[in-house]
UniProtKB/TrEMBL annotation:
This is Regulator of sirC expression, contains transglutaminase-like and TPR domains. Belongs to the UPF0162 family. Residues 59-197 form the Protein SirB1 N-terminal domain. PANTHER family: F-BOX ONLY PROTEIN 21, SI:DKEY-261L7.2. It comes from Pseudomonas trivialis. Pfam families: TPR_9, Transglut_core2.
Length: 281
């Protein structure tokens, strides 16, 4: 395939889903929602992002018909409540399945993780010119209207003030984790999509879909700024798939990135039990 010309984009049918995903990220501004659809297309060749984008235009019409006549910066919560009225809600199925994070499935079922609900809300807000941003809050993706003194739960639109955020954090992680300002920062599209990829990696792993989890693990690393935990997650997948050379590569990278002495010791021990590197003559 020829390299992409600097003057424009390759047509979608000339790209792999992964290439189309990064093409969305390289646009100005990045096409966040479409990029998330290409993640779904990577897992299911039947997914057609262009067709889904047209369907979202119909959803946009349904949402806008019942919106109140108020300033645009006051429409964040009404948008989320309208989505809830249309049946969109958090997926409470236990254990969660990958369908809770794959946007095509979430749009069909109207059930998903908070991040998936947030991605749909952000796309509707963009189309309706409602100011809204994503917040990578630990354990529960949240939304913000710039300048507001509260955050919004994408699953229903509940307002969360600092005390509510503190309670949400402690409910998920226990009393030892304190609320920090970094938990409330606006998330850039790349960080949101990396979180989505990590979610899918875990969901596919939990459902014993190791090859699908590997696809997500690779995307996490390609997005950059990967952590020791990201390399360790892919190493564990390679271990399950009996690929010792690839496992060694990721364990060595995790060892380089880790700042935990105990973890570094365990990684070194694990590396010691792998077959030695093969020598190419």
């Amino acid at each position: 395939m020829r390299s992409k010309a600097k003057t424009g984009h390759l047509p979608e049918n000339a790209m792999t889903p992964r290439q189309a995903f990064f093409d969305c990220l390289h646009r100005s501004p990045p096409a966040l929602f479409e990029a998330a659809l290409w993640i779904a297309a990577e897992h299911d060749p039947a997914v057609q992002p262009a067709a889904i984008l047209r369907d979202v235009a119909l959803l946009q019409q349904q949402v806008s018909q019942a919106m109140p006549i108020v300033p645009m910066d006051e429409l964040g919560q009404p948008l989320l409540r309208r989505m809830n009225d249309l049946g969109f809600a958090q997926d409470d199925f236990t254990p969660l399945r990958p369908a809770a994070a794959l946007l095509d499935k979430v749009l069909q079922r109207k059930r998903g993780q908070p991040l998936a609900m947030g991605l749909i809300a952000l796309e509707l807000a963009r189309r309706l010119e409602i100011p809204m941003q994503g917040v990578n809050f630990p354990g529960h993706f949240l939304l913000r209207v710039p300048g507001a003194d509260h955050l919004l739960d994408p699953c229903g639109g509940r307002r969360l003030y600092p005390n509510d955020c503190r309670e949400l954090l402690q409910r998920q992680y226990g009393p030892n984790l304190t609320l920090k300002s970094e938990h409330l920062h606006t998330a850039e599209p790349r960080a949101i999509l990396q979180r989505l990829s990590r979610n899918l990696r875990q969901l596919h792993l939990s459902n014993d879909e190791y090859l699908a989890a590997l696809v997500d693990a690779e995307r996490v690393l390609e997005l950059g700024n990967a952590s020791a935990a990201d390399y360790l997650a892919r190493a564990s997948l390679y271990q399950r798939l009996d690929c010792p050379s690839a496992e060694r590569f990721d364990l060595e990278h995790a060892l380089l990135l880790s700042e935990d002495p105990i973890q570094r010791l365990r990684l070194a021990e694990r590396l010691g039990h792998l077959p030695p590197k093969s020598v190419v003559h």
